[in-house]
Structures are given as C-alpha cells and as structure tokens.
C-alpha cells in the first residue's frame, strides 16, 4: 500500500511540471500523421542483403512497398521481423508521400526546420560564450598592463618625483640630439 502511494505521487509530481526540457514536448502543433489507403499500396517480401549474417540473406524478411498513385518505392530491412519491417516501411512511405503532397508543411519538413533552428541557436550561444571569454581575457590583460606601468600618476607609486625627473631627463636628451 505504501509503495503504491509513493509511486502515485512521484509520477503525478513528474507529470505536474509546467515546463519540459524534453524535445518531444518542445515541438508543438505538428500536422497529424498521414494516413495511406491500403488499396493504394502494394507490398512484397524480399530477401535481405548486406550485413546481418546468413539469416537475413536466406529469409524473405525485407519489405518493399509501392504507392500506386505516386510511384514511390520504399524498402525496409532494418530488423529480422517482417511485421516490424512492414511497419517501418509504411511510416517511411507515408512520410515521403506527405512530403510530396505538402512540401514545406509536412511533418518531416517542420521537424527538420526545428532541428536547424536549435543547431543554429546552439552555435550562436557557443560563439557568444567564446567571444565573451576572449573579451574578458583581453580586458584582464589591458588592466594588468595599466597596473604594471607605475607612472607618475599611479597612486601606488612610491617615488612620483623621481619618475618625473627621469622623464624630464629623457626629454632633454632627446631634444639635445642633432637631427631629430
């Protein structure tokens, strides 16, 4: 009884959060998944090829679907199961038909646009961060250079009169040189 009570509140607290960082919740207002009429699809089972061992090459587990109205052909051999390959092939075919019909308003196009925006935002954040770090580093070097000057106006300078005298002597020696 106690475990069920705790489990209820843990899950309800998790579901009650107002904001989510999960990417599936961030994409909103996607168009509904496309539905294809079974009469428009012809399917065949083929022997697989490529990596996966002898089992894939010997059995007819790969699925090839053809959409009659558009002529789009999709093949799936992702798994060893016919039913799973059939499901994957139908999803791929539906996505391709929708992209052909809707273009930029299709689910796949919207998802790709969101992904591009996120990547661009991430890149922009990184650039901003490193630019700020570089500026901070440059500012720190400039302030270090200013503190190390020990000029006559420096409040930490112990002998401001001696510094002025050295400067005056340098000016006199430069003006006394012929040709300058």
TrEMBL record:
Residues 24-57, 112-180 are annotated as: Disordered. GO terms for cellular component: mitochondrion. One of its GO terms (molecular function) is translation release factor activity. SUPFAM superfamilies: Release factor. Coiled coil: none annotated. Keywords: Mitochondrion, Transit peptide. One of its GO terms (biological process) is mitochondrial translation. Belongs to the prokaryotic/mitochondrial release factor family. This is Prokaryotic-type class I peptide chain release factors domain-containing protein.
């Amino acid at each position: 009884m106690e475990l069920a009570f705790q489990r209820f509140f843990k899950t309800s607290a998790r579901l009650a959060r107002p904001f989510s960082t999960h990417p599936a919740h961030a994409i909103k207002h996607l168009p509904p998944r496309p539905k294809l009429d079974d009469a428009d699809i012809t399917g065949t089972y083929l022997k697989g090829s490529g990596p996966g061992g002898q089992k894939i090459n010997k059995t007819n587990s790969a699925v090839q679907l053809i959409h009659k109205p558009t002529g789009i052909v999709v093949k799936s051999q992702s798994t060893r199961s016919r039913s799973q390959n059939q499901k994957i092939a139908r999803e791929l075919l539906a996505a391709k038909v929708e992209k052909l019909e809707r273009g930029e308003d299709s689910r796949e196009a919207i998802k790709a646009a969101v992904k591009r925006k996120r990547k661009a935002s991430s890149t922009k954040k990184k650039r901003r961060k490193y630019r700020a770090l570089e500026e901070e580093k440059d500012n720190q070097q400039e302030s270090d250079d200013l503190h190390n000057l020990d000029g006559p106006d420096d409040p930490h300078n112990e002998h401001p009169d001696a510094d002025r005298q050295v400067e005056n002597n340098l000016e006199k020696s430069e003006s006394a040189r012929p040709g300058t």
